[in-house]
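Why does residue order matter? Because the sequence determines the fold. Keep that principle in mind as you read this record.
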Amino acid sequence: MRTGGQPMKVITLTLHLHQRFFPKVLTVTGFILLLFLVPLLAIQSSFLLQVLSTSFLYAALSLSWNLLAYSGHISLGHAAFFGLGAYGSALFALNFDTDPFTSIWAGGLAGALLAAFSGILFARLRGAYFALATLALVEIPKMIADNWVSLTRGSLGLLNIPPFKLPLINANSNLTIYLVNLSSLTILLLVVALILNSRWGWALRALRQDEKVSMTIGINSNFYTLITISVSGFGAGICGAIFAHSIGIIEPGMVFSLHYSALPMVMALFGGRFSVIGPVVGSLVLTLLDQFVFQPIFPAGHQILYGLAIMITILFMPGGLMGLLGARKHGITGS
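Structure:
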């Protein structure tokens, strides 16, 4: 009876997960399709497209950060993956005269390799020690970019980075960048959702809850941490690459700024750290609030209002916006 019942339990669990997962996928897909229609409604508002494009890039970066956080590892070094992705893609495009849609893969690979290296190097570290080690990691590629002048031009930065081009749309126009950023976010959201609703995702949750117990039931902590930080670094590298091709010029202080380590963490916490769409919601809401509420009300100190919003969230909404809405469940919204 036990032998025959086990497959039935697995099938029942799988069907149950699918019943909860796919309706939410359809809901999120509908929302994303609506975002693709925004340019038709706001084609005259270039500022709105710029703000939304920025929020999409931040959301993708926050998603990549949150994937690693699911395993219980807090990274303060995503600026390293972001910056290396920017330089990797820009240098590849400039030296090999490639299309940006090709070179961004080089940026993603650069971010993934650095992330994998850090995963191996910091394999024995946990908690605050892991976070501080990743924070120190940011300085290494930044110093290399600053001092390898023959390759990176040092503090002068890289210029004339080729822009994205789409058929029938002006190169690097607001609409082009909007569509590129939204498409990248959509793909990354789908990848992260699939990961977190697979055995891989369940392993990450188990490791976060109790690593020692998880290892006793056969979950390889080092393996899952390594592949997760590599995918996380790849996503951050892609974000850096897109950023480089969108603005056309980068320098070390710009792309290796700790801003790109703190921002994804803050937005994930604000939206809901243990929710797949939490980082996306947090990025959209915070970016829109900053541009349309905080800055108009308090132009000289809008960052103070930004910080207060985050403090209130941490103190009174530890589950973030998604936790407040009661959406932190299995499936596309995570658990």
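The chain has one domain: 14-324.
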